Amino acid sequence: MNKYYLETQMLSKKYGQTYAVNKVNIHVKQGDIYGLIGPNGAGKTTLMKMISGFATPTEGEVQLFSEEDRTRRIGVLIENPGLYGNMNAFENMRLRAVAMGVYDRKNIMEILDFVGLSGDLKKKTGKYSLGMKQRLGIGFALIGHPDFLILDEPINGLDPQGIAEVRELILELNRKESMTIMISSHILEELGKVATTFGIIEKGRLILELSQAQLKQQCEERVEIVSTDNGRVAITLEGMGIRQYRVISADTVYAYGCMQRVDEISRQLVERGVAIRRIGVAGTSLEDFYLNTLKGGAAS
Amino acid sequence: MINLMKMNGIRMFHSKLFYVMMILCFGIFLFFASLEIDPETQELDRIIMEEEGIDADEARFGTTVGGTLTQDTPLEDVYAEMVGSGVLLIFAGVFASVYSDEERKSGFLKNLTVGRSGKKYIFASKAPVLLLFCFLQLMVCLAAVWLGINSAGEHRVISVENLAVYILTETLLHTAFGIFLMVCYEVFRKIVVNILLAVFTALNLSGFVLSLLETKISVFRTFTEALGGRLEMTQYLLVTRARNMQVNENVFPFVPSLVAALIGLAVYMTLGMVICSRRDTV
Question: Hey, how many other C-beta atoms are within 10 angstroms of the C-beta on A109?
Answer without folding.
Answer: 14
